[in-house]
Amino acid sequence: MTAAAAAVLLGLSACTSDETDTASETTTAVETTATSGSSTTEQAEESAQHSEADVMFAQMMIPHHEQAIEMSDIILSKDDVPADVTSLAEEIKAAQGPEIAQLTDWL
User: Fold this and answer.
1) Which domain holds residue 64?
2) What is the mean pLDDT of residues 50-75?
3) What is the predicted pLDDT for the residue at 30?
4) How confident is the model over 94-104, as a mean pLDDT?
5) Phi and psi (nearest 5°) for 29?
6) Which residues of 73-83 are buried (b: 16+ CB within 10 A; e: fewer)?
7) Per the structure, how many domains does the chain have?
């Protein structure tokens, strides 16, 4: 069981570490743009400027984040999982939900 938990831990951490940082940076950029004093019309025009790649990225990241939640649920449903692994699974679940909501809002 410990080897399986370690494998899931490595998989989950690989799935989330960069995305969380990127999401934070993106949120900061959006907040900065939104608070820069632009008019509502200018903000709407700026938010409308996106490419097909942006849309595809968001569409592909949603199932990716959903899978991270599913993997976390699997770990949390098991007994005898080390506390640090359980803690990481809980952190992943807490982070991925809001990121899914943000990606959905962008679409």
Assistant:
1) 2-106
2) 94
3) 46
4) 94
5) -65, -40
6) eebeeeeebee
7) 1
